[in-house]
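Checklist before submission:
- one chain only
- standard amino acids only
- sequence pasted in full

Submission:
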Amino acid sequence: QVPHAPSQPLASSESRRFTNKHSKKAVKASLTLGILLGMFFVAWLPFFVTNVAQAVCGCVPAGFFDVLTWLGYCNSTMNPIIYPLFMRDFKRAMGKFLPCCRRSGEPRPSAISLSMRNSNSGPRAAASLRNVL
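Returned file contents:
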């Protein structure tokens, strides 16, 4: 006979809240991705289909081809608008670097602090250099 473990109690409200929070994030991420991909396909697919048709038969008027090209360009200009609307992290990052998006009282990062953060300079670099040698 194999002893069985005592049955686990039903999930607590905290674990249900945790699951609910993550499922809401997953739905929001799926919605954002769906909107971005949908807009990309609506804007660029006609251009690519027309481009192939132009290469095969040469029957596409130049004005129509230009309109489809500009439709794709308009999609590319919409991305900086769509990302901040749906992604909180993107909005925060843009707020740090663009003066028009920064909240009042929030300091602007200096160029020196940005370069120090992005480079390997500082005490850690010296310690890692000693370890390598």
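Reviewer check: The CA atoms of residues 46 and 68 lie 7 Å apart.
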